[in-house]
Amino acid sequence: MRPTIDQWILQDKIAYAITDRNLAVVEIGGAVHIIGDDPSACLDRPLPDLVPELVGSEDVLADILAGDLPRFEVGWAYHETAGGQVTYLTMVALPYRDQQGHIAGILHLFQDVTDMGLIAQQLAQNRNELRLLRDQLARQNLELAAANAELRRLDEIKSMFVSVAAHELRTPLAPIRGYLEVLLDEEVGHLTGEQREYLQIVQESARRLLTLTSNLLDVTRIEAGRIELVLQPVDLWALIETLAAEYGPQLEAKAQRLTLCASPGLPSALCDEMRARQIVGNLLSNACKYTPEGGAIRVSLALAEEQGFLQVAVADSGVGVPAEDQPRLFSRFFRARSAVLTRASGAGLGLFIARSLAELHGGRIWFQSEPGQGSTFYVTFPVADRPAVRPSDHPSSSPSTIANN
Amino acid sequence: MMTTISKKICLLGDFAVGKTSLVRRFVYDLFNDKYISTIGVKVSRKTVAVPRADEVIELAMMLWDLGGSEEFNQLRASYLRGASGAILVCDLTRPDTLASFRTYAAELLSVNPHARLVLAANKCDLTDQQRLAPAEVEAVAAELDASYYLTSARTGEEVEALFRHLGRSLVG
Questions:
Q1: CB-CB: which of B37, B42, B82 is closest to A125?
Q2: Whole-structure pTM value
Q3: Up-side HSE of residue A179: CA atoms within 13 Å toward CB?
Q4: What's the complex ipTM?
Q5: Cα A189 to Cα A200: distance, rounded to the nearest angstrom
Q6: Are A89 and A119 in contact (CB under 8 A)?
Q7: FRET pair for A48, CA 20 to 30 Å: which of A118, A183, A212, B96?
Protein backbone atom coordinates (compact mmCIF):
# COMPACT_ATOMS: atom_id res chain seq x y z
CA MET A 1 0.00 0.00 0.00
CA ARG A 2 1.25 3.43 -0.92
CA PRO A 3 2.40 5.49 2.09
CA THR A 4 0.49 8.67 2.85
CA ILE A 5 2.22 11.98 2.46
CA ASP A 6 2.40 12.26 6.24
CA GLN A 7 4.06 8.86 6.49
CA TRP A 8 6.41 9.59 3.62
CA ILE A 9 7.56 12.91 5.08
CA LEU A 10 7.94 11.48 8.54
CA GLN A 11 9.83 8.43 7.30
CA ASP A 12 12.16 10.21 4.93
CA LYS A 13 12.49 13.84 5.82
CA ILE A 14 11.49 14.61 9.37
CA ALA A 15 12.55 13.16 12.69
CA TYR A 16 11.35 14.17 16.10
CA ALA A 17 12.51 13.74 19.66
CA ILE A 18 10.81 14.62 22.91
CA THR A 19 13.07 15.45 25.82
CA ASP A 20 12.19 15.84 29.48
CA ARG A 21 13.10 18.83 31.59
CA ASN A 22 16.67 17.50 31.83
CA LEU A 23 16.92 17.24 28.03
CA ALA A 24 16.98 13.43 28.20
CA VAL A 25 15.26 11.74 25.26
CA VAL A 26 11.94 10.14 26.27
CA GLU A 27 10.59 9.52 22.80
CA ILE A 28 12.11 9.56 19.33
CA GLY A 29 10.66 8.74 15.93
CA GLY A 30 10.23 9.53 12.27
CA ALA A 31 13.25 9.62 9.99
CA VAL A 32 15.73 9.09 12.82
CA HIS A 33 18.44 8.13 10.34
CA ILE A 34 18.81 11.81 9.39
CA ILE A 35 20.35 12.45 12.79
CA GLY A 36 22.40 9.30 12.37
CA ASP A 37 21.46 7.16 15.30
CA ASP A 38 19.70 3.97 16.25
CA PRO A 39 16.44 5.10 17.94
CA SER A 40 16.70 2.61 20.77
CA ALA A 41 20.22 3.83 21.59
CA CYS A 42 18.96 7.39 21.94
CA LEU A 43 16.41 6.84 24.69
CA ASP A 44 17.31 8.31 28.07
CA ARG A 45 20.45 9.96 26.68
CA PRO A 46 20.84 13.75 26.83
CA LEU A 47 19.90 15.05 23.39
CA PRO A 48 22.91 17.44 23.21
CA ASP A 49 25.10 14.30 23.26
CA LEU A 50 23.49 13.28 19.98
CA VAL A 51 23.07 16.72 18.42
CA PRO A 52 26.12 18.92 18.89
CA GLU A 53 24.19 21.99 17.73
CA LEU A 54 22.33 21.90 21.06
CA VAL A 55 25.54 22.26 23.09
CA GLY A 56 25.67 25.78 24.42
CA SER A 57 21.95 26.20 23.83
CA GLU A 58 20.99 25.00 27.30
CA ASP A 59 19.98 28.50 28.42
CA VAL A 60 17.78 28.90 25.38
CA LEU A 61 16.15 25.52 25.96
CA ALA A 62 15.63 26.47 29.61
CA ASP A 63 13.78 29.57 28.40
CA ILE A 64 11.48 27.30 26.37
CA LEU A 65 10.89 25.08 29.38
CA ALA A 66 10.09 28.18 31.42
CA GLY A 67 7.60 29.33 28.78
CA ASP A 68 9.65 32.45 28.04
CA LEU A 69 10.55 31.48 24.48
CA PRO A 70 8.00 30.03 22.01
CA ARG A 71 10.55 28.40 19.68
CA PHE A 72 14.23 28.10 18.88
CA GLU A 73 15.52 27.28 15.42
CA VAL A 74 18.89 26.39 13.96
CA GLY A 75 18.74 26.45 10.16
CA TRP A 76 21.03 24.79 7.64
CA ALA A 77 23.14 22.73 10.03
CA TYR A 78 25.79 20.85 8.09
CA HIS A 79 26.28 17.19 9.01
CA GLU A 80 28.66 14.69 7.56
CA THR A 81 28.24 11.00 8.25
CA ALA A 82 31.17 8.67 8.88
CA GLY A 83 30.81 7.57 5.26
CA GLY A 84 31.29 11.15 4.08
CA GLN A 85 27.64 11.74 3.16
CA VAL A 86 26.61 15.37 3.59
CA THR A 87 23.23 16.37 4.95
CA TYR A 88 21.75 19.71 5.87
CA LEU A 89 19.25 19.79 8.73
CA THR A 90 16.97 22.44 10.07
CA MET A 91 16.16 22.03 13.76
CA VAL A 92 13.26 23.52 15.68
CA ALA A 93 12.68 23.27 19.43
CA LEU A 94 9.11 23.82 20.72
CA PRO A 95 7.50 23.48 24.15
CA TYR A 96 5.98 20.02 24.72
CA ARG A 97 2.86 20.17 26.88
CA ASP A 98 1.23 17.41 28.91
CA GLN A 99 -2.50 16.74 29.01
CA GLN A 100 -2.98 19.50 31.55
CA GLY A 101 -1.27 21.97 29.24
CA HIS A 102 1.84 22.32 31.34
CA ILE A 103 5.22 22.37 29.67
CA ALA A 104 6.61 18.93 30.39
CA GLY A 105 9.57 18.98 28.03
CA ILE A 106 10.67 20.01 24.58
CA LEU A 107 9.62 18.73 21.18
CA HIS A 108 12.57 18.78 18.78
CA LEU A 109 11.86 18.55 15.08
CA PHE A 110 14.64 17.78 12.59
CA GLN A 111 14.00 18.32 8.90
CA ASP A 112 16.30 17.02 6.19
CA VAL A 113 16.85 19.96 3.81
CA THR A 114 19.82 18.43 2.01
CA ASP A 115 18.42 18.90 -1.50
CA MET A 116 17.92 22.62 -0.99
CA GLY A 117 21.13 22.85 1.02
CA LEU A 118 23.26 21.45 -1.77
CA ILE A 119 21.73 23.86 -4.27
CA ALA A 120 22.15 26.79 -1.87
CA GLN A 121 25.77 25.75 -1.26
CA GLN A 122 26.47 25.65 -5.00
CA LEU A 123 24.87 29.06 -5.47
CA ALA A 124 26.86 30.52 -2.59
CA GLN A 125 30.01 28.91 -3.94
CA ASN A 126 29.52 30.40 -7.41
CA ARG A 127 28.55 33.80 -6.05
CA ASN A 128 31.50 33.98 -3.68
CA GLU A 129 33.97 32.81 -6.31
CA LEU A 130 32.64 35.52 -8.63
CA ARG A 131 33.04 38.10 -5.87
CA LEU A 132 36.60 36.99 -5.25
CA LEU A 133 37.34 37.21 -8.96
CA ARG A 134 35.73 40.64 -9.16
CA ASP A 135 37.82 41.85 -6.21
CA GLN A 136 40.93 40.36 -7.75
CA LEU A 137 40.17 42.07 -11.06
CA ALA A 138 39.56 45.36 -9.30
CA ARG A 139 42.92 45.04 -7.55
CA GLN A 140 44.66 44.14 -10.79
CA ASN A 141 43.03 47.08 -12.54
CA LEU A 142 44.30 49.39 -9.85
CA GLU A 143 47.79 47.97 -10.16
CA LEU A 144 47.65 48.27 -13.94
CA ALA A 145 46.41 51.85 -13.70
CA ALA A 146 49.31 52.67 -11.40
CA ALA A 147 51.79 50.95 -13.70
CA ASN A 148 50.26 52.74 -16.66
CA ALA A 149 50.55 56.11 -14.96
CA GLU A 150 54.20 55.39 -14.19
CA LEU A 151 54.84 54.35 -17.80
CA ARG A 152 53.21 57.54 -19.03
CA ARG A 153 55.37 59.57 -16.71
CA LEU A 154 58.50 57.81 -17.95
CA ASP A 155 57.35 58.19 -21.55
CA GLU A 156 56.87 61.91 -21.02
CA ILE A 157 60.36 62.18 -19.58
CA LYS A 158 61.72 60.23 -22.55
CA SER A 159 59.83 62.43 -25.03
CA MET A 160 61.07 65.54 -23.28
CA PHE A 161 64.64 64.25 -23.42
CA VAL A 162 64.36 63.35 -27.11
CA SER A 163 62.83 66.73 -27.86
CA VAL A 164 65.55 68.64 -26.02
CA ALA A 165 68.30 66.48 -27.51
CA ALA A 166 66.94 66.93 -31.04
CA HIS A 167 66.71 70.71 -30.58
CA GLU A 168 70.22 70.89 -29.21
CA LEU A 169 71.53 68.81 -32.12
CA ARG A 170 69.76 70.97 -34.70
CA THR A 171 71.08 74.27 -33.41
CA PRO A 172 74.76 73.73 -34.37
CA LEU A 173 73.66 72.11 -37.65
CA ALA A 174 72.53 75.45 -39.06
CA PRO A 175 76.00 77.08 -39.05
CA ILE A 176 77.62 73.83 -40.13
CA ARG A 177 75.39 73.63 -43.19
CA GLY A 178 75.70 77.36 -43.84
CA TYR A 179 79.51 77.36 -43.82
CA LEU A 180 79.58 74.17 -45.90
CA GLU A 181 77.60 75.96 -48.60
CA VAL A 182 79.98 78.92 -48.41
CA LEU A 183 82.94 76.55 -48.84
CA LEU A 184 81.29 74.54 -51.63
CA ASP A 185 80.35 77.74 -53.45
CA GLU A 186 84.09 78.64 -53.28
CA GLU A 187 83.24 82.00 -51.76
CA VAL A 188 86.35 81.81 -49.62
CA GLY A 189 88.69 80.13 -52.00
CA HIS A 190 89.12 77.52 -54.67
CA LEU A 191 88.55 73.84 -53.76
CA THR A 192 90.50 70.94 -55.09
CA GLY A 193 88.51 67.97 -56.36
CA GLU A 194 89.39 65.96 -53.26
CA GLN A 195 88.38 68.81 -50.92
CA ARG A 196 85.03 69.19 -52.68
CA GLU A 197 84.40 65.47 -52.46
CA TYR A 198 85.06 65.44 -48.69
CA LEU A 199 82.94 68.51 -48.11
CA GLN A 200 80.06 66.94 -50.05
CA ILE A 201 80.28 63.88 -47.81
CA VAL A 202 80.11 66.18 -44.78
CA GLN A 203 77.16 68.02 -46.33
CA GLU A 204 75.28 64.77 -46.99
CA SER A 205 75.93 63.63 -43.42
CA ALA A 206 74.70 67.00 -42.09
CA ARG A 207 71.58 66.65 -44.21
CA ARG A 208 70.90 63.19 -42.84
CA LEU A 209 71.46 64.42 -39.31
CA LEU A 210 69.01 67.24 -39.92
CA THR A 211 66.43 64.79 -41.24
CA LEU A 212 66.93 62.57 -38.23
CA THR A 213 66.54 65.39 -35.72
CA SER A 214 63.49 66.72 -37.58
CA ASN A 215 61.93 63.26 -37.49
CA LEU A 216 62.66 62.86 -33.80
CA LEU A 217 61.04 66.21 -33.10
CA ASP A 218 58.02 65.22 -35.18
CA VAL A 219 57.67 61.94 -33.29
CA THR A 220 57.69 63.72 -29.93
CA ARG A 221 55.13 66.21 -31.23
CA ILE A 222 52.91 63.42 -32.59
CA GLU A 223 53.10 61.51 -29.31
CA ALA A 224 52.26 64.63 -27.35
CA GLY A 225 49.45 65.54 -29.76
CA ARG A 226 51.18 68.83 -30.52
CA ILE A 227 51.10 68.71 -34.32
CA GLU A 228 48.96 71.44 -35.74
CA LEU A 229 47.93 71.37 -39.35
CA VAL A 230 47.40 74.49 -41.43
CA LEU A 231 44.76 73.20 -43.81
CA GLN A 232 44.31 74.88 -47.14
CA PRO A 233 43.56 73.84 -50.71
CA VAL A 234 46.76 72.38 -52.14
CA ASP A 235 47.52 71.42 -55.71
CA LEU A 236 48.90 67.93 -55.11
CA TRP A 237 50.03 67.56 -58.69
CA ALA A 238 52.23 70.67 -58.40
CA LEU A 239 53.52 69.34 -55.10
CA ILE A 240 54.44 65.99 -56.71
CA GLU A 241 56.19 67.70 -59.59
CA THR A 242 58.23 69.84 -57.20
CA LEU A 243 59.22 66.79 -55.20
CA ALA A 244 60.17 64.92 -58.37
CA ALA A 245 62.46 67.77 -59.31
CA GLU A 246 64.03 67.82 -55.84
CA TYR A 247 64.71 64.10 -56.01
CA GLY A 248 66.12 64.39 -59.50
CA PRO A 249 69.79 64.17 -58.42
CA GLN A 250 69.13 61.09 -56.25
CA LEU A 251 67.24 59.36 -59.03
CA GLU A 252 69.93 60.26 -61.48
CA ALA A 253 72.65 58.94 -59.22
CA LYS A 254 71.00 55.49 -59.30
CA ALA A 255 69.89 55.75 -62.90
CA GLN A 256 66.27 55.27 -61.82
CA ARG A 257 63.35 56.16 -64.04
CA LEU A 258 60.51 58.17 -62.44
CA THR A 259 57.13 58.34 -64.10
CA LEU A 260 54.40 60.72 -62.94
CA CYS A 261 50.79 60.48 -63.97
CA ALA A 262 47.50 62.08 -62.95
CA SER A 263 43.88 61.63 -63.86
CA PRO A 264 42.37 64.62 -65.61
CA GLY A 265 40.24 67.21 -63.82
CA LEU A 266 41.26 66.48 -60.29
CA PRO A 267 40.29 68.82 -57.47
CA SER A 268 42.79 70.18 -55.00
CA ALA A 269 43.38 68.52 -51.64
CA LEU A 270 42.58 70.07 -48.29
CA CYS A 271 45.82 69.60 -46.39
CA ASP A 272 48.81 71.17 -44.74
CA GLU A 273 51.15 71.70 -47.66
CA MET A 274 54.35 71.25 -45.68
CA ARG A 275 53.08 68.02 -44.07
CA ALA A 276 51.70 66.67 -47.35
CA ARG A 277 55.12 67.31 -48.88
CA GLN A 278 56.67 65.45 -45.95
CA ILE A 279 54.37 62.43 -46.44
CA VAL A 280 54.76 62.09 -50.20
CA GLY A 281 58.47 62.98 -49.98
CA ASN A 282 58.96 60.20 -47.47
CA LEU A 283 57.28 57.67 -49.77
CA LEU A 284 59.34 58.87 -52.73
CA SER A 285 62.54 58.79 -50.69
CA ASN A 286 61.86 55.19 -49.64
CA ALA A 287 61.11 54.22 -53.23
CA CYS A 288 64.51 55.65 -54.28
CA LYS A 289 66.26 53.87 -51.43
CA TYR A 290 64.84 50.42 -52.04
CA THR A 291 64.75 50.42 -55.82
CA PRO A 292 67.94 49.07 -57.32
CA GLU A 293 69.99 50.95 -59.84
CA GLY A 294 68.22 51.31 -63.16
CA GLY A 295 64.84 50.50 -61.60
CA ALA A 296 61.56 52.25 -62.17
CA ILE A 297 59.38 54.36 -59.86
CA ARG A 298 55.91 55.58 -60.67
CA VAL A 299 53.96 58.26 -58.80
CA SER A 300 50.31 58.65 -59.67
CA LEU A 301 47.52 60.92 -58.52
CA ALA A 302 43.86 59.98 -58.86
CA LEU A 303 40.53 60.11 -57.06
CA ALA A 304 40.46 57.53 -54.29
CA GLU A 305 37.83 54.82 -54.12
CA GLU A 306 36.59 56.48 -50.94
CA GLN A 307 34.44 59.36 -51.95
CA GLY A 308 35.88 62.78 -51.15
CA PHE A 309 39.51 61.74 -51.18
CA LEU A 310 42.46 61.99 -53.50
CA GLN A 311 44.95 59.18 -53.64
CA VAL A 312 48.68 59.34 -54.25
CA ALA A 313 50.33 56.04 -55.15
CA VAL A 314 54.11 55.55 -55.17
CA ALA A 315 55.11 52.30 -56.84
CA ASP A 316 58.66 51.02 -56.97
CA SER A 317 60.41 48.04 -58.47
CA GLY A 318 62.47 47.44 -55.34
CA VAL A 319 63.10 44.47 -53.09
CA GLY A 320 59.61 44.52 -51.54
CA VAL A 321 58.66 44.05 -47.90
CA PRO A 322 58.97 40.55 -46.42
CA ALA A 323 55.60 39.24 -45.23
CA GLU A 324 56.73 38.92 -41.61
CA ASP A 325 57.77 42.61 -41.56
CA GLN A 326 54.59 43.97 -43.07
CA PRO A 327 52.44 44.22 -39.89
CA ARG A 328 55.08 46.36 -38.17
CA LEU A 329 56.13 48.54 -41.06
CA PHE A 330 54.44 51.68 -39.70
CA SER A 331 55.75 51.21 -36.16
CA ARG A 332 58.21 53.58 -34.60
CA PHE A 333 61.90 52.73 -35.09
CA PHE A 334 61.02 49.62 -37.07
CA ARG A 335 63.34 48.78 -39.91
CA ALA A 336 62.42 45.96 -42.25
CA ARG A 337 65.04 43.33 -42.93
CA SER A 338 65.21 44.55 -46.51
CA ALA A 339 66.33 47.94 -45.19
CA VAL A 340 69.10 46.32 -43.23
CA LEU A 341 70.14 44.10 -46.12
CA THR A 342 70.26 46.96 -48.62
CA ARG A 343 72.07 49.14 -46.04
CA ALA A 344 69.55 51.89 -46.65
CA SER A 345 69.98 54.80 -44.24
CA GLY A 346 67.22 55.77 -41.83
CA ALA A 347 66.04 55.39 -38.26
CA GLY A 348 62.69 53.74 -38.92
CA LEU A 349 60.65 56.88 -38.25
CA GLY A 350 59.59 58.03 -41.72
CA LEU A 351 56.61 55.72 -42.22
CA PHE A 352 55.45 56.16 -38.63
CA ILE A 353 55.41 59.91 -39.15
CA ALA A 354 53.79 59.59 -42.59
CA ARG A 355 50.98 57.46 -41.22
CA SER A 356 50.43 59.74 -38.22
CA LEU A 357 50.30 62.81 -40.44
CA ALA A 358 48.00 61.13 -42.99
CA GLU A 359 45.62 60.11 -40.22
CA LEU A 360 45.73 63.64 -38.78
CA HIS A 361 44.47 64.82 -42.16
CA GLY A 362 41.63 62.31 -41.97
CA GLY A 363 43.23 60.18 -44.66
CA ARG A 364 44.96 56.84 -44.50
CA ILE A 365 48.08 55.14 -45.68
CA TRP A 366 48.68 51.53 -46.68
CA PHE A 367 50.76 49.44 -49.03
CA GLN A 368 50.87 46.34 -51.15
CA SER A 369 54.09 44.46 -51.57
CA GLU A 370 55.47 41.22 -52.87
CA PRO A 371 59.06 40.39 -51.98
CA GLY A 372 61.17 40.81 -55.09
CA GLN A 373 58.27 42.40 -56.97
CA GLY A 374 58.40 45.90 -55.51
CA SER A 375 55.93 47.81 -53.37
CA THR A 376 53.19 50.36 -53.87
CA PHE A 377 52.37 52.79 -51.09
CA TYR A 378 49.08 54.64 -51.10
CA VAL A 379 48.07 57.73 -49.18
CA THR A 380 44.80 59.62 -49.30
CA PHE A 381 44.00 63.28 -48.64
CA PRO A 382 40.57 64.87 -48.35
CA VAL A 383 39.34 66.82 -51.32
CA ALA A 384 39.00 70.61 -51.01
CA ASP A 385 35.97 72.36 -52.43
CA ARG A 386 37.92 74.47 -54.87
CA PRO A 387 39.26 72.71 -57.98
CA ALA A 388 42.98 73.09 -58.46
CA VAL A 389 43.99 70.80 -61.28
CA ARG A 390 42.50 71.61 -64.62
CA PRO A 391 42.71 68.96 -67.32
CA SER A 392 44.18 71.48 -69.74
CA ASP A 393 46.96 72.21 -67.23
CA HIS A 394 48.25 68.71 -67.54
CA PRO A 395 48.96 67.47 -70.96
CA SER A 396 50.89 64.86 -69.01
CA SER A 397 47.72 63.18 -67.82
CA SER A 398 49.41 60.52 -69.81
CA PRO A 399 52.63 59.49 -68.05
CA SER A 400 55.43 62.03 -67.94
CA THR A 401 59.00 61.11 -67.25
CA ILE A 402 60.81 63.50 -64.93
CA ALA A 403 64.10 61.81 -64.51
CA ASN A 404 65.73 58.94 -66.19
CA ASN A 405 69.09 57.86 -67.28
CA MET B 1 38.82 13.19 38.17
CA MET B 2 39.20 15.97 35.63
CA THR B 3 36.33 18.46 35.35
CA THR B 4 34.80 18.56 31.88
CA ILE B 5 32.91 21.50 30.53
CA SER B 6 31.55 22.37 27.08
CA LYS B 7 31.59 25.80 25.51
CA LYS B 8 30.07 27.05 22.32
CA ILE B 9 32.46 29.12 20.23
CA CYS B 10 31.41 30.83 16.99
CA LEU B 11 33.69 31.68 14.11
CA LEU B 12 32.58 34.88 12.44
CA GLY B 13 33.90 36.66 9.39
CA ASP B 14 33.23 37.51 5.78
CA PHE B 15 33.15 34.80 3.14
CA ALA B 16 36.41 33.14 2.10
CA VAL B 17 38.51 34.54 4.97
CA GLY B 18 39.41 31.00 6.10
CA LYS B 19 37.07 30.22 9.00
CA THR B 20 36.51 26.62 7.91
CA SER B 21 40.22 26.17 7.22
CA LEU B 22 41.14 27.42 10.71
CA VAL B 23 38.73 24.93 12.31
CA ARG B 24 39.98 22.14 10.06
CA ARG B 25 43.59 22.94 10.93
CA PHE B 26 42.84 23.10 14.66
CA VAL B 27 40.61 20.01 14.85
CA TYR B 28 42.18 17.69 12.27
CA ASP B 29 45.53 19.36 11.55
CA LEU B 30 44.64 19.40 7.85
CA PHE B 31 44.52 22.05 5.16
CA ASN B 32 42.91 22.08 1.72
CA ASP B 33 43.68 24.86 -0.71
CA LYS B 34 40.34 24.58 -2.49
CA TYR B 35 37.76 27.14 -1.40
CA ILE B 36 34.43 25.55 -0.45
CA SER B 37 31.77 27.97 0.63
CA THR B 38 30.04 27.16 3.92
CA ILE B 39 26.33 27.74 4.16
CA GLY B 40 24.47 27.72 7.46
CA VAL B 41 26.56 26.23 10.22
CA LYS B 42 29.03 23.40 10.60
CA VAL B 43 29.68 22.29 14.17
CA SER B 44 32.96 20.59 15.10
CA ARG B 45 34.22 19.51 18.46
CA LYS B 46 37.67 19.44 19.96
CA THR B 47 38.53 18.78 23.55
CA VAL B 48 41.57 20.45 25.06
CA ALA B 49 43.06 20.43 28.52
CA VAL B 50 43.14 23.91 29.97
CA PRO B 51 44.76 24.91 33.26
CA ARG B 52 42.57 26.79 35.74
CA ALA B 53 43.94 27.86 39.12
CA ASP B 54 45.25 24.60 40.64
CA GLU B 55 43.43 22.17 38.38
CA VAL B 56 43.24 21.22 34.75
CA ILE B 57 39.89 21.47 33.03
CA GLU B 58 38.87 19.34 30.09
CA LEU B 59 37.25 21.81 27.78
CA ALA B 60 35.05 20.54 24.95
CA MET B 61 35.13 23.36 22.41
CA MET B 62 32.02 23.25 20.24
CA LEU B 63 33.18 25.20 17.25
CA TRP B 64 30.37 26.79 15.24
CA ASP B 65 31.71 27.61 11.82
CA LEU B 66 29.16 30.05 10.42
CA GLY B 67 28.68 30.71 6.72
CA GLY B 68 30.14 34.09 5.79
CA SER B 69 27.77 34.96 2.96
CA GLU B 70 25.42 37.77 3.81
CA GLU B 71 22.37 35.77 2.74
CA PHE B 72 22.69 34.01 6.10
CA ASN B 73 22.84 37.25 8.08
CA GLN B 74 19.24 36.86 9.24
CA LEU B 75 19.95 33.42 10.68
CA ARG B 76 23.08 34.53 12.46
CA ALA B 77 21.37 35.80 15.62
CA SER B 78 19.91 32.36 16.29
CA TYR B 79 23.29 30.74 15.66
CA LEU B 80 24.90 33.10 18.14
CA ARG B 81 22.56 32.24 21.02
CA GLY B 82 24.43 30.63 23.86
CA ALA B 83 27.91 31.33 22.48
CA SER B 84 30.50 31.80 25.22
CA GLY B 85 33.07 33.19 22.86
CA ALA B 86 33.85 33.96 19.27
CA ILE B 87 36.78 34.18 16.93
CA LEU B 88 36.46 37.00 14.44
CA VAL B 89 38.39 36.13 11.30
CA CYS B 90 39.63 38.50 8.61
CA ASP B 91 41.81 38.02 5.55
CA LEU B 92 45.05 40.00 5.52
CA THR B 93 44.83 40.28 1.73
CA ARG B 94 41.33 41.88 1.82
CA PRO B 95 41.13 45.04 3.95
CA ASP B 96 37.34 45.24 3.88
CA THR B 97 37.13 41.97 5.83
CA LEU B 98 38.64 43.72 8.87
CA ALA B 99 36.12 46.54 8.63
CA SER B 100 33.31 43.99 9.18
CA PHE B 101 34.60 43.08 12.66
CA ARG B 102 32.69 45.85 14.42
CA THR B 103 29.39 44.58 13.01
CA TYR B 104 30.08 40.97 14.00
CA ALA B 105 31.20 41.96 17.48
CA ALA B 106 28.12 44.13 18.02
CA GLU B 107 25.86 41.31 16.84
CA LEU B 108 27.49 38.78 19.15
CA LEU B 109 27.52 41.04 22.19
CA SER B 110 23.90 42.02 21.70
CA VAL B 111 22.93 38.34 22.05
CA ASN B 112 25.62 37.35 24.58
CA PRO B 113 26.91 40.43 26.43
CA HIS B 114 29.59 38.44 28.29
CA ALA B 115 30.99 36.55 25.30
CA ARG B 116 34.77 36.59 24.92
CA LEU B 117 36.35 37.72 21.68
CA VAL B 118 39.63 36.99 19.99
CA LEU B 119 40.66 38.18 16.54
CA ALA B 120 42.41 36.16 13.83
CA ALA B 121 44.05 37.94 10.92
CA ASN B 122 44.39 34.98 8.63
CA LYS B 123 46.50 34.15 5.56
CA CYS B 124 49.65 35.66 7.04
CA ASP B 125 51.65 33.29 4.82
CA LEU B 126 50.62 35.29 1.71
CA THR B 127 53.15 37.98 2.50
CA ASP B 128 53.39 39.40 -1.03
CA GLN B 129 49.61 39.88 -1.25
CA GLN B 130 49.04 41.41 2.18
CA ARG B 131 47.16 44.66 2.14
CA LEU B 132 46.45 44.92 5.86
CA ALA B 133 49.17 45.97 8.26
CA PRO B 134 49.33 44.26 11.67
CA ALA B 135 48.98 47.73 13.19
CA GLU B 136 45.54 48.07 11.62
CA VAL B 137 44.46 44.75 13.13
CA GLU B 138 45.94 45.78 16.46
CA ALA B 139 43.94 49.02 16.41
CA VAL B 140 40.65 47.17 15.87
CA ALA B 141 41.59 44.61 18.54
CA ALA B 142 42.21 47.44 21.01
CA GLU B 143 38.89 49.01 20.09
CA LEU B 144 37.09 45.70 20.76
CA ASP B 145 39.19 44.98 23.86
CA ALA B 146 40.34 41.68 22.38
CA SER B 147 43.58 39.88 21.67
CA TYR B 148 44.60 39.20 18.10
CA TYR B 149 46.70 36.62 16.28
CA LEU B 150 48.26 36.66 12.83
CA THR B 151 47.39 33.18 11.65
CA SER B 152 47.85 30.90 8.70
CA ALA B 153 45.55 27.92 8.30
CA ARG B 154 47.83 26.81 5.48
CA THR B 155 50.99 26.59 7.58
CA GLY B 156 49.29 26.25 10.96
CA GLU B 157 51.07 29.34 12.28
CA GLU B 158 49.48 30.59 15.52
CA VAL B 159 46.30 28.51 14.98
CA GLU B 160 46.72 26.39 18.11
CA ALA B 161 47.66 29.48 20.11
CA LEU B 162 44.56 31.29 18.90
CA PHE B 163 42.10 28.60 20.02
CA ARG B 164 43.94 27.85 23.25
CA HIS B 165 43.97 31.54 24.16
CA LEU B 166 40.20 31.67 23.80
CA GLY B 167 39.84 28.36 25.67
CA ARG B 168 41.83 29.71 28.62
CA SER B 169 39.83 32.91 28.73
CA LEU B 170 36.58 30.88 28.77
CA VAL B 171 37.52 28.76 31.78
CA GLY B 172 39.56 31.36 33.61
A1: B37
A2: 0.64
A3: 5
A4: 0.88
A5: 16
A6: no
A7: A118
